[in-house]
Structure formats: C-alpha cells, structure tokens
Amino acid sequence: MKKNQFFIFIAACVFCLSGCIISHTPFENPVALSYGEQKTFSIKVSSSTASYTWYADGAVVPGETQNSFTYVLNDVIKSKHKIKVIAKYSSSEDAYTWNVNYEGMKNNYVYLKSDPGDYVGGGGTYLYTQADSQISLEANGGLLSISIDGDEWWFGDFQEPNYFRKLRVGQYLNLKRYPFNEPLIGGLDWGGEGRGCNELTGSFKIDDVTYSGDTLTSIDLSFEQHCEGNTPALHGWIHWRSDDHTAPPGPVNPIPNGLWKPASGSTPINGNYVYLQIEPGDCYSGQSRTLTYTQANSSISLEEDTGYLSIRILGDEDWDGQFRVMNTLNSFEIGYYGNLNSYSRDNPTKARQSVGWYGNTGWFAIDNVVYTNGVLTAIDLRFEQDSCTSSSMRGEIHWRLDDPTVPPGPVNPPPAGLWEPVSGSTPPSGNYVYLQSDAGDYIGWGKTYTYTPDTISISVNEMSGHLGVYINGNDWWSGDFKTMSSLDKFQLGYYPDLKRFPFNNPARGGLEWGGNGCGCNTLTGWFVVDNVLYANNVLTSIDLRFEQHCEGGTPALHGKIHWNN
C-alpha cells in the first residue's frame, strides 16, 4: 500500500468509529421522475444503532424512521425537488441529499391545490388530464370558460378587463366574483361539487396564450381564489393546447386474473340468466344471498345503445342494472373496466355501472360480446359493486338474443287437495261469486258471501290474460287474476306462488281480491281455472277458484267465480 493511501484509510476508519454512510440508492444524482412516479431512496451506514430522519423539500416526513423511504412525485408545478436523509449515531450524524428533477407534464392538465380551510377545494389536491377527465375550454373575447367532468366536476370563468377583445399575457389582480365584477377590472369564479363562493377575491395570471385567427390554440393560466374574505385559498394551474389528442384508455385486455367469477356449477347450464351474489350487510336485506333469474322464472329485458347497456329484471324481486363504456367507445368490447363510479355519479372518460339503488364503486368485465349488423346479439358480463356499506354485490349476466325460453304454463291437472266450496254451498245454476273467509282474514272478516246477478251487479272483463271481476251494490268487491307472461289467454290448470297484482312476478302471474275498504298490502296465493272457453278470442265462460293470504298471515280468503257470457 502506498503511503498516501494508508493515511486515507486510517482517516476513514477514525471518521467511521461512531458511524458513517457507506452507500446510497439510487446511485445517480440528480434523479429524474415523472408525475405520479415513485422511487425508493435508501442509505447503508456502518452503525447498527443509527436513527433516521427523512425530509422531502425541507419538510420532515412523518413516520419515516428506517433507512429507506419511498417518495411519490405528486406536484405538477415545481420542477426541482430535494430528498434528504440524516443518519444519527451515538456521537455524530451524517446526511445525504438527492436532487429530483421533474420536467413537467407535456399534455393538457388542470391542477388544483386547496389550502386547509378553503371551502371550495376542501383542502384537497386534484389533477385532471384528458386521459382521466373530460376537459372543455372556450374563449369568448376576454373571457375564458372551462369545465371539468371527471371523478369530480368543476367549472371556472376568467374575465379580463372588458376592453380586451382577446386573452392576453399578464397578471390580473384585485378581482371579484364573475359575473358580478367591475367590468374594467375583470373577474374570476371557480366552483364545483356543489360548492362555490358567494363573494370572493383573487387573481389570475396568463403566462402564455396563442391564437389562430380568432380561435384560441393554447393557454397557460394560474389563479388564486379566496372565499368570503377568508385567508385559505384555492390555487389552480391550467395548461391547455388544442392539438393535444390524448384520449382515455379503453378496457384492459386480456382481463386480469383473480377477478370474481361464480363458483363452478352455481349458474344455469343453458339459457339466459342473471346471477347475483350478495354479501352480509348489503343495503338491500343485510343478509347473504344468492339469486338466480332466468327467463323461466322472471322477465329479463336487455337493451343496448351506443355503449349503454340497461337490464331490467321483474321477478320475485325487481332489479335494474346500468353499464356504460368510456366516452371514447360507442360499443362494448371484451376487457376489464375498472375503478368505476356509480352511474348516477359518472366520469365520462371511465366506464360506469349501477345495479339496484345503492351502486357506488366497482368494476365490470366483458368476457364475450357479439354485435350483428350493429345490434347486440350476445353478451357475457360479470361485475362487482361496493354499495352503501363495505359489502359487495357481485353478478354475472349471460344473454343471447335468440334464447327461446319462456315461463312454464299452469300445472294441469291441478294438484289434489286444493280448496273447493263444500258441495251444495254454491248456487246450482247461473253466474255467481262465492267468498269464504277464515276467522282472522282481514279482507272477508271471517264471513261467507254469495253474490248472483239477481241481487247485485257482477261484471267480468278479460283482456290478454287479465281477468277483472267487479261487484257493485250494498257490498263492493274487485278481483284481478293474471296469467304468466308467456300466455295471453287463460288455460286450464293451477297457477301457484302468486303475489299481489300488479306488483307480481310476471313470469308467474298474480292475483288480488279486495273491497269494502279492505285490501292487502302484500299477499300470497294461487288460483285454479277449472273451465274456460273462448269464442273468436273472446272469453265466453270461466270457472275459477282462488286462495289469498294477506301480509303473510295464515287465515285465508277463498273464492269461486262461475261465469258464462
């Protein structure tokens, strides 16, 4: 070892007796980062008992006490940043600083930075680009108007003094709220998300602006706004070029692995279906449930128009679903549509969804989709939606335009043991309505009634599988009986598992009997058609008996209708 090298070695050893920095990562300095990019900075020291303090742009980073720190560049304005670490040993300390360079965003953006206590911005930081938001900008004389439709929505107006016919480079101070400002001074106004200033003070600065003739082609503008004379401010920066053609990305294809799918064997093998899996605590019942709807047990209607899909289920429960592609598409494509808001609070640059009334955030994926001559003819879609709690609803839709499945008709012959009037209790001839009410039945009050045309007015009307029966006199009653949606005429047989008409499941049919001021809010029941005749598609004769239970109760109202035209 040469003599001078020996002395350097001895000096280094003496210096590192209590501790020193041996190496640092990244090695390069300065470090170049783009907006949103993260980088881990770390050091290695000679002491095992060192403590660490990290600084980002001169401010201590809370909670960062290890030898590494992950930094995310989230400021689009500053071009120079510093990351510093101080390592403290038993009797000394050492420090290292990285310079971080940010070259700035080249594409259009709007950046908002709200001070704590600012009402409009709520103390938040927001960045919008044409990849994640719809940014609309218009210049009219010395007025610039801008709107943002993204995960949040905003609007802004910037008015120069009214003697300017075009926007000009310069700083505009002592401004009041547009359009209530002094015309010779100018004004501004920024608001959104349901928040705005009643009165404000502020300023804006145009650093660069260009026109092609009378058409605005670029602008760089910054502003500051104070609501109601308060100190906290909303700061904003707008960078816009007319030739920026950035567009939102389409769906992710191939679809990421690990997304929810129904368990094998849990969905029907054939035919159209909607399968729903609901976690405990959901907004609908608070219970874990799985629901399967097919064209045999419910009405499933689906419509698609330029990338908007609506689906409606009318069954034992009713559901509505809405799915929308991002605004760069006009039809559905295979892929994953993630990070979605509900349809009622939509970002047009993202897809949207909502199932039921409580949709919030989630995703959907298109596993298969077919259009024929521009018309949707097949789709396989699955989704996940977080609703009003932390619970999720998940679902799968399998639909083909040519699925011929229809609800089954009535059971014929009817099952034995269903209620019938006791022999001799009804008139031997002629039209009649016979009602027998159990003790505790709210509608019939535990009584028996027999009505004939000789004593009271009885009318019967039938149209497209709906039978209306009306009794008017000292008593008045009305009855409704509806076939399943697959029939437009009554057929012989048993119609089971019915709910109150017209709120029934159309795939099953419905009924309701009420009168004398009494009716069911909800009901269950059945009816049987023992005889029915049509002549030239007009009902001429029917024998129908029924059973109805109000509000889930055991007592029943029974009835029989015998009618010949």
Describe this structure in words.
This protein is mostly beta strands. 2% of the residues lie in helices and 50% in strands. It has one helix at 3-15; strands spanning 21-25, 31-32, 38-45, 51-56, 59-60, 68-72, 80-88, 93-101, 109-114, 125-129, 134-140, 143-149, 153-159, 170-177, 187-192, 200-212, 215-227, 233-241, 273-278, 289-294, 299-305, 308-314, 318-324, 335-342, 352-355, 361-372, 375-386, 392-400, 432-437, 448-451, 457-463, 466-472, 476-482, 493-500, 510-515, 523-535, 538-550, 557-564. Strands 10-9-18-17-16-14-15-13-12-11 form a 10-stranded mixed sheet, with no helix packed on it. Strand 31 and strand 32 form a beta hairpin. It starts with a helix and ends with a strand.
Question: Termini separation (Å)?
Answer: 124 Å
* Uncertain residue ranges: 1-14
| Number of H- or I-type helical stretches | 1
Number of strands: 38
Mean of pLDDT = 92
**Strand fraction band?**
over 45%
Report the helical percentage: under 10%
Shape: elongated
Largest sheet: 10 strands, mixed
Q: Tell me the Rg in angstroms.
A: 37 Å
Keywords:
mainly beta; 10-stranded mixed beta sheet; 38 strands; about 575 residues; elongated
Provide a concise account of the structure shown.
By secondary structure, the chain is mainly beta. Helices cover 2% and strands 50% of the residues. The chain has one helix at residues 3-15, and strands at 21-25, 31-32, 38-45, 51-56, 59-60, 68-72, 80-88, 93-101, 109-114, 125-129, 134-140, 143-149, 153-159, 170-177, 187-192, 200-212, 215-227, 233-241, 273-278, 289-294, 299-305, 308-314, 318-324, 335-342, 352-355, 361-372, 375-386, 392-400, 432-437, 448-451, 457-463, 466-472, 476-482, 493-500, 510-515, 523-535, 538-550, 557-564.
